Description:
- The chain has helices at residues 10-22, 47-56, 74-81, 92-106, 111-121, 150-156, 176-183, 195-203, 208-215, 235-241, 248-254, 272-277, 292-306, and strands spanning 3-7, 28-32, 38-40, 43-45, 127-130, 137-142, 147-149, 163-169, 187-190, 218-222, 225-226, 229-230, 261-265, 281-285.
- By secondary structure, it is of the alpha/beta class.
- Strand 11 and strand 12 form a beta hairpin.
- The longest helix is centred in the N-terminal third of the chain and has 15 residues, at 92-106.
- The radius of gyration is 19 Å and the shape is globular.
- Bound molecules: guanosine-5'-diphosphate.
Amino acid sequence: MxxxxxxxxxxxxxxxxxxxxxxxxxxxxxxxNTGDDGIHSGLLVCPDIDTLIYTLxxxxxxxxxxxxxxxxxQVFDRLGExxxxxxxxxxxxxxxxxxxxxxxxxxxxxxxxVTRALCLAHNIAPNILPMCDELFQTKVITQDGRTLDFHExxxxxxxxxxxxSIAFIGNPxxxxxxxxxIMQTGALIICPSNPFLSIDPILQVPGLQSLITxxxxxxxxxxxxxxxxxxxxxxxxxxxxxxxxxxxESVAKKYQSIATHxxxxxxxxxxxxxxxxxxxxxxxxxxxxxTLADKKQLASDVLGFLGVK
Length: 309
Ligand code: GDP
């Protein structure tokens, strides 16, 4: 049986890496969030696609949360000397990825086709699909009344502003590749990614969520919250600002219209009954992925719970 994962950046990529060890490559497709995509220094930046590619090829930066290991920064240092805009930095090797993408897009390839070419160039077999080919951008509306591009919020302002709401701007359509992946899939896995900034943009692509719920019977979410906290990033802060308790119950409510199964961490075993009373099938296990062994184990638990392995 083939599985389809919905993923943002680091949290999602960790589980996807585990899944890639547990499944034959042709059985794993991933729909990546592209709501964070945008133009920086004239180049189209696709952070979550690149994090997935670098993680699956074992080249991701171990601590940074984006980019490649062993980077140098000569291009952006020079750009700074020239007075260029450098708050959004790309490492020298990472720039090669962006030039590769820019050239192919200029030649008329879609983002889906370029992503496939990048996967081949990195020797990655699982099928990584952008959620759509069009720019469909996440905007953050702050409590002080500003509308920020995602990276102004995330990188320039370091997630500092209090968030009022989130909007998605663009006219995306369901790509034939995403549609085919959903049609061929036996089970859905929503990775432990930010539900509001990484998974919501994917589910906002018109027709995507309804096709998933029509076609895929088992739909599992791995909670990104452990013991009332996020492992990294702004998920917990954002939930507080949106007046949501930082709990598995809030995550379950957020995914109420899509999830049938939920995996929560051992530290939250006490939540199992409540989540089951909400109609979910619940598995309690270790969901903190610190080592490759953790990633493989969680992937194995996910697949076992879905009856895939
Ligand atoms: P980003 O795009 O780099 O912010 O990454 P994601 O959206 O994929 O993931 C961010 C979310 O993943 C945060 O809410 C984290 O709590 C969650 N996360 C990261 N690592 C882990 C982990 O090992 N286990 C679990 N359960 N959640 C994680």
